[in-house]
User: Fold these one by one.
Assistant:
Number 1:
Amino acid sequence: MPIENIPEIYIDKSKNLQDIFVYDFKMTSDVVKSKVNLSMNMFSFLQVGKKQVHFANNSIAVNKKQSLLLKKGNWLWTELLDIEAIYYCKLFFFSERKLKDFLKKYTNDIHPYQEETPYFVIENDEYIAAFINSLSSTTFTNHSFSDALLVLKFEEIMLYLLNKYGSRFEYYLHSLISKEVSPFKSVVESNVHSNLKLEEIAFLCHMSLSTFKRHFTTEYNQPPGKWLKDKRLQKAKELLQNKDLKPSDIYFEIGYNNLSNFSVAFKNKFGFSPTDIPKPEL
């Protein structure tokens, strides 16, 4: 089963990928299973047929009574014909840049953490049905103001769904934004549980120790020494609780040069020595 790069396979190779565009998808095969590399977030407005999408940890199946907003990523999906012997859906793609523009314009930048979910199920109603009917790739291909119209259509459906689903949809939209880790944080967090000293981690970040400390405090709102110490002692506690290990087996790998210093730091943080740590109940 080949991997389909979507929406790239729907785009004329001589043209650039647009920030927002519509594609009318029709199928007359009984069942089509696809490995999909979805490089843009996408509405799937199913009009005839059934669709099932498999994600890493779950799956979702919809028919024409529902629509899906899918997060970009690698998914497996199956498209099935309905009793009308046809499968027809309208795919509405939008870039992360346009999503950020929309969120900045209409929503609050401060929002609770939302666990990332690869899809949002939309219950179709009369308004959404009318919106779907207004979408057509031909309408937005040869129109003088096609780009402006597409932005308006994008904002229209987003605003309607914000009104329909409230904060749940708003938090979902924020979860679609890529969470990029800076090179600095990548180096720090790759060495959290190592035995490297601060100056050694600073060296890996191409910084002097003083610059590293200033940058760290800006990124994490906490001095690096305390932050690393807490993380490493917590890791030590987990190792001693869940594995058949002794304090002498782990003190060096989490950054302590001798067992005595490790034992003192551990007791100061948790209130008991590493040799007295309670084991989890079976």
Note: The longest helix spans residues 146-165.
Number 2:
Amino acid sequence: MTKSDSDTGGDAITPAGTSGSVEVIKLADVDESLEVFKKEEGVVDFRTVGWIHASVIFLKVIFATGVLSIPSTMYVLGALPGAINVLGWQFLNTYCAIIQGNFRNSHAGCHSIADMANVVGGAWLKEVVGALFLVTYAIVGASGIFGASVALNALSNHAICTNWFMLVATMAVFFLASMRKFEKIAWLTWAGFLSVYIAVFIVVVGVTTRDRPAAAPQTGDFDLGYHVIGNPTFVTGITSVATIFCSGAGTSAFLPVISEMRRPRDYNKAVYLCMGIVTASYLSFSLVVYRWCGQWVASPSLGSAGYVIKKVAYGIGLLGLLVSACLYIHVAAKYIFVRVLRHSEHLQKNSVVHWSVWLGCTFSMSVVAFILASGIPIFNYLLALAGSLTFAPLALGLPGYLWVYDHQHYRHGSWWERMVYYLNWLMILLAVFLTIGGTYGVVQNIIDAYANGEIGGAFSCADNSNSS
């Protein structure tokens, strides 16, 4: 499919072909019967989200756990390669988000990335991608729960076992994620985004006021560990690259929001606003924290500026960490919910079946996220595992193929069209490499962390403070 502007200035969709005339269809005129959620009398109206609210939801999906992990990857890669990775991956993630949105608006019956997989690959690919989607958002949901447990530990001076704090965080996430409509969560995301943004900003300012990093030896000489270009091994390097990629790769979570937007064609505006803010913030915040903390940066990075600022930052950022996990659990639960009730009258009806299925979905996803958070209690490794094992095929490889599917005529077009066509195939190959290489690197790092005592043990009360 290709896009063009209509005479009235609105977006239009034209079927991609190699020859012949094409029919122009305004997005606003797409058959409403194809939409998952209908605007009808007597049913719950899910389509109530404006594009500004959508952009804030996207911001909270992306700008949360990612910004807390990038500074520590800078130490592995070095400042220059780290900055290049941030810019490069954010560009690709934005491009893939736009591809997914355009494809969805060309196939209005698609509610999730799995529905799009069904269009291009049939039922078997739909099931594979659906499973990947659920695993992905269970893992990043676990990272949000783990981050919230670190915050509660910091605020309470480790008053109780970390796993109990994870359980408390999971219960809060379940409650927040169980709000049915993105419109309701959208208002919560304003507070969540601001809380994390302010908390990170406080840390950024705080680290610049210290003579030496809080975690470094406070007397005598010490090695800051700041490098313009690092010297990582393949395992540590690919893990750091996967972590940076993951920090902006949650674009498949944008798609269910489109089905609840009042004007789905406003999606692109919401994406550009979100990704512009995220990219500028990631680059500036991570470079400043790494420049002042070097190898002594904490992960999550909110603990990098000393005891007092750590407590202040976690106190302010706690809501944002919970809202992040809430969004991840919500989008995964909404996928299951729609799959189960899509062709049922209970999808948009305030019935016992409707609420039972919905709460069952949010509860089950919360439980899975809790198990993952307790089993892999190192923040960066959770994100790197998501980036390599699931986000690479889901947010990089599949969007590349969605574009190829709708632009087959580019293969026989001008030199520019042919180059773009094969660059999208190259993006698919990059996703394959990151999936295989990244997963190997992360798994090896997790094995080494258990062997070296960095992780006291899954589901144990051992102090994993060196990871937080």
Note: Residues 1-31, 463-468 have pLDDT under 50 and may be disordered.
